[in-house]
Amino acid sequence: MPRAGAEPTVRFPQNQTAVGRGANAAITTIPDPVWSRMVGYSWTEGCPVGRSGLRYVTVNFWGFDGKRSRGALVVNRSVAGSAAAAFTRLYDLRFRIRQMRPMDSSWGRNPKGPGADDYASMDADNTSAFNCRYVGGEEEKKVYSRHAYGMAIDVNPFENPYLAADGSVYPDNHWARRRGPAPGVFSSSSSAAVRAFTSQGMRWGGLWANPDYQHFDAS
Known about the structure:
- There is one protein chain.
- By secondary structure, the protein is α+β, with helices and mostly antiparallel strands.
- Helices cover 16% and strands 18% of the residues.
- The chain has 4 helices and 11 strands, in the order E-E-H-E-E-H-E-H-E-E-E-E-H-E-E.
- It has helices spanning 32-38, 80-93, 118-123, 192-198; strands spanning 16-17, 26-28, 54-62, 68-76, 99-100, 126-127, 152-154, 162-163, 169-170, 203-204, 215-217.
- Strands 1-4-3-2 form a 4-stranded antiparallel β-sheet, covered by helices on one side. It has a 3-stranded antiparallel β-sheet with strand order 7-11-10, with helices on one face.
- The radius of gyration is 16 Å and the shape is globular.
- The termini are far apart.
């Protein structure tokens, strides 16, 4: 794929190979090895949801390298089915995803509060969900993000940045005003990729006063 201006820290990550046919989404409890990497990072004592309230979703996706890959994320058990359905739809659309890895010790600790380092994850264009952290860019308020409940998903943060109220853009401003159709970009609320989530009852942050184009959440 041709370069499209600014790039994340890793252009073509070493994703796992796809398993089975189609999206082949699967929902399970969190495997012990995954949980052990989460504890002390994306999950700590006092988080508003525990292991039993979370689920592990694995699904095939189309990478920016054009290959079928497999990724995983952790979500609240109440939205696991919706998340699996949304990513199945993205697969059918051949919507590009850079990588999809749970928030855990591999990202390090968040330098601005509890949770794994969401800023490192965004810089790497990682698609993720559960992370027991405060609202990004507003950590001083100490308000838990919807991600801390496993009720929110961020998809391709680099192509779909967050425009904070103070004018900051996370993780990079290259795509902040380039919302036309492009690989991995959520271009509008009427796009099929956005509707993959909103049809499952999720809200799109791209419509907010301070747009968070990567963000989808459920109430």
